[in-house]
């Protein structure tokens, strides 16, 4: 039996390109971000100021950075809950280095190396020892945080060079966009190319859909997971350096609870917690949506508790939308199959 050359039988490509781009969770998050921004710009005092834009971007830079590798990890069906502890540990190492006269360049390098080591530990335990990533990273969350607090105790290192701390507040001309966003833009481009336009990225999706099938198709599952956890640890350490310089304070308890914000933003951006689905543009939009919505509500005098409730409800709805979209797609596919004329035995034999 032959099929028409124009017929697409693979479900994700059964619809036209415009429909696949516009009718998706990623597109809905981007549209919701634009709605919040336009509404706030016209109705919330000071929301349209460049100062507000600067505040939103600086406030969400740490989450934006960590969300990039976290997206890749969750697409494989794994998770890393230790990212905030890596931020705190890298902050503590940076502070200790400056405190002992190592200088900022060497202290920064040591902080990044600590992130690499943390990622290697997580990756080996998950990929090669084959322990559940949830259990592993809950354990290393406590481990890395305990080491960070143990290194600095209750003290805080604050004597960072102003030439470094001032970089987190600088903006590009009169745009209100922080200069550090250039670093994020470069990393975002690299991660988007890695996930969406490389064989390595296709392997990530294969692992999320089926580890066994990925192995049979030639994907080195263990090595891929190790690389992803190393990337997560390294970028988390970079986020820890930015976090420390932004507040001018190195403490072992820096960024406590940040992992929940990162995971919420990734899921809100359209990534499936079960793996195999998600796009980085939607995740970036999800982070910015949380930042813009929080800023607009704060300027309107809404309390932090109410803001958390609203964002939590938004996250629950976004997760439920996955099942809803799958149900709608299934119903639509069944209707399309029912409308196709069934072939008679004679027609089949003539082919």
Automatic annotation (TrEMBL):
A Pfam family recorded for this sequence: BPD_transp_2
Entry keyword annotation includes Glycoprotein: no
Membrane topology, as annotated: Multi-pass membrane protein
Transmembrane segment boundaries: 21-41, 53-74, 81-102, 108-129, 136-157, 177-197, 226-245, 257-275, 282-299, 305-328
Subcellular location: Cell membrane
UniProt cross-references to InterPro entries, sorted A to Z: ABC_transp_permease
Keywords in alphabetical order: Cell inner membrane, Cell membrane, Membrane, Transmembrane, Transmembrane helix, Transport
Name of this protein: Autoinducer 2 import system permease protein LsrD
Organism name: Kineosporia succinea
Upper taxonomic lineage: Bacteria, Bacillati, Actinomycetota, Actinomycetes, Kineosporiales
């Amino acid at each position: 039996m032959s099929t028409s050359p124009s017929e697409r039988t693979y479900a994700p490509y059964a619809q036209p390109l415009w429909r696949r781009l516009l009718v998706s969770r990623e597109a809905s998050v981007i549209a919701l971000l634009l709605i919040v921004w336009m509404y706030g710009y016209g109705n919330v005092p000071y929301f349209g100021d460049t100062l507000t834009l600067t505040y939103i971007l600086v406030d969400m830079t740490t989450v934006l950075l960590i969300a990039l590798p976290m997206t890749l990890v969750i697409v494989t069906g794994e998770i890393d809950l230790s990212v905030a502890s890596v931020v705190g540990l890298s902050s503590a190492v940076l502070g200790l280095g400056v405190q002992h006269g190592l200088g900022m360049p060497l202290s920064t390098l040591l902080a990044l190396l600590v992130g690499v080591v943390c990622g290697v530990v997580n990756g080996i335990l998950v990929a090669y020892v084959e322990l559940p990533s949830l259990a592993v990273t809950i354990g290393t969350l406590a481990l890395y945080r305990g080491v960070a607090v143990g290194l600095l105790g209750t003290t805080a290192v604050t004597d960072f060079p102003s030439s470094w701390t001032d970089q987190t507040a600088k903006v590009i001309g009169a745009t209100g966009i922080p200069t550090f966003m250039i670093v994020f833009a470069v990393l975002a481009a690299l991660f988007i190319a890695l996930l969406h336009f490389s064989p390595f990225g296709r392997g990530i999706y294969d692992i999320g859909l089926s580890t066994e099938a990925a192995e049979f198709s030639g994907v080195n599952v263990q090595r891929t997971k190790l690389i992803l956890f190393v990337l997560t640890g390294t970028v988390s350490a970079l986020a820890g350096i930015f976090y420390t310089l932004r507040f001018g304070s190195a403490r072992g308890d820096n960024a406590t609870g940040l992992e929940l914000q990162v995971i919420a933003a990734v899921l809100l951006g359209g990534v499936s917690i079960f793996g195999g689905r998600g796009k980085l543009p939607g995740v970036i939009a999800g982070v910015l949506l949380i930042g813009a919505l929080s800023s607009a509500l704060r300027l309107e005098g809404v309390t932090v508790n109410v803001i958390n409730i609203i964002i939590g409800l938004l996250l629950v709805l976004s997760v439920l939308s996955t099942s809803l979209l799958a149900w709608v797609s299934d119903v639509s596919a069944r209707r399309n199959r029912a409308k196709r004329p069934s072939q008679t035995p004679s027609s089949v034999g003539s082919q």
